[in-house]
Design goal:
37% strand, 202 residues, alpha+beta, 2 domains
Length: 202
């Protein structure tokens, strides 16, 4: 009788241990799931804080704050012409336009118009680019600063819209759509090679 009771007690104890073991395994498994979930959330959070958004916004600061009011290009059949407009900086830091490009010409340069010793006006590359002050403007106009379009690959026809890409000091770029217009002015001599800018047709 005593042996029988001992066997039953032992069996009961083993069953209890099995239940405890199962519960412990379940708790461990839950702990693993929670840990995995936390790791995933942490990784997602890390991705949000160090992902491409901040970097992108940093490189696009200059382009995002710059616009061009009334951009236009002087009509020309061949040779050289120029692009004008008003650069507007809505940001709180200066923006520098360092270069320009477009598919209508082999070369585009940033130019200024200066007076020679003999009183004649001539164009030459603008050292340091066009600086647009924070919250301010920089005008590109006939007889002043402008984008010089050199080596036209085809005529710039009145009424068509050309795309000019401006590259800024922080490496960002801004595409500007400029309408071609007939204009009889802006015939200054290009300093250095004696070439006159094509006056286009009236």
């Amino acid at each position: 009788m005593t042996a029988h009771l001992t066997t039953r007690s032992l069996g009961s104890s083993l069953a209890s241990l099995a239940v405890v073991g199962a519960l412990a395994g379940g708790l461990t498994a839950c702990g693993d799931d929670t840990s995995g979930s936390t790791g995933s959330s942490s990784s997602s959070g890390s991705s949000s804080s160090s992902g491409p958004s901040p970097a992108s916004s940093g490189t696009l600061d200059a382009a995002a704050s710059l616009t061009v009011t009334d951009p236009w290009v002087k009509a020309a059949d061949s040779g050289m012409t120029a692009a004008f407009g008003t650069l507007v900086n809505t940001g709180d830091t200066d923006v520098v336009v360092t270069s320009a490009s477009g598919d209508i010409a082999s070369t585009m340069e940033l130019h200024e118009t200066v007076e020679n010793a003999d009183g004649s006006m001539a164009m030459q590359p603008k050292e340091g680019g066009f600086v647009v002050p924070a919250g301010g403007e920089h005008e590109l106009a006939p007889g002043g600063d402008h984008l010089m379009i050199m080596g036209l690959t085809r005529p710039a026809t009145p009424g068509e819209v050309l795309t000019v890409t401006l590259t800024l000091g922080d490496g960002s770029t801004l595409e500007v759509e400029a309408t071609v217009k007939s204009f009889s002015g802006a015939d200054e001599e290009y300093q250095g090679d004696g070439m006159d800018m094509d006056s286009g047709s009236e």
